[in-house]
Amino acid sequence: MSQIELLIQPSDVVALTTFDGNIDEDNLKPMIFIAQTTHLKSFLGLKLYNKIYADFVANTLSGVYLTIYEDYIKDFLSYYTSVLFVDFGGYKVSENGLHKITSENITPLDSSETEKLSLRYNQLIAGVESNFKEYVDDLALPELADKTIIIEDTFPWH
Q1: Position 75 in a domain
Q2: Which parts of the chain are beta strand (E)?
Q3: Which of 19, 20, 66, 81 has the most crowded Cβ, counting Cβ within 10 A?
Q4: Within a domain: 88
């Protein structure tokens, strides 16, 4: 994983989702990294992402940028991390190949149940994106001057 500071910690994911607090942080951090460096960057646009990231690293987030971080980014990243973990978290790649992780006294979800759970987290993400779009529409942020915010809503809402 690149040397990049994560905008949220595994404890944020656990606090904002149905994830159990016993999940190994090392298993969540790569998912947070992907959610942040791929999906959040794409959603916010590089200019706004870079502004918020630089202020976060410097511990100087303030004003609307702090509000965006606290009210939207934390939720977005927690839910997107959850989607990624639901989709990929049950598998490991090692020198012995690809294998499914199982445990005693646990019944793994079948693929349709996993897809339903992933869909629910995607719906939460769409809600955060919609609320964010509404919040920033009247702000005239310079970082969003050339950015059109697109909300993913091509999945069933029931």
Answers
A1: yes
A2: 91-94, 97-100
A3: 81
A4: yes
pLDDT, one tens digit per residue, over 71-94 is: 999 999 999 999 998 887 665 666
149 located within any domain: no
Q: 24-69 pLDDT, tens per residue?
A: 788 889 999 999 999 999 999 999 999 999 999 999 999 999 999 9
Residue in 45, 38, 11, 35 with CA at minimum distance from that of residue 25: 11
Nearest to 117 by CA among 11, 34, 18, 43: 18
Percent of the chain predicted with pLDDT > 90:
51
Looking at the structure of the chain, the number of domains it has is 1
pLDDT beyond 50 at 158: no
1 within some domain: no
Any bridge partners for residue 97, and if so which? Answer: 94
Angle (CA) 109 27 45, round 5° = 100
HSE, side-chain direction, 13 A CA sphere, residue 86: 24
What residues have CB less than 8 Å from 8, skipping those under 6 apart? 32, 36, 73, 74, 77, 78, 81
pLDDT, the chain, mean: 85
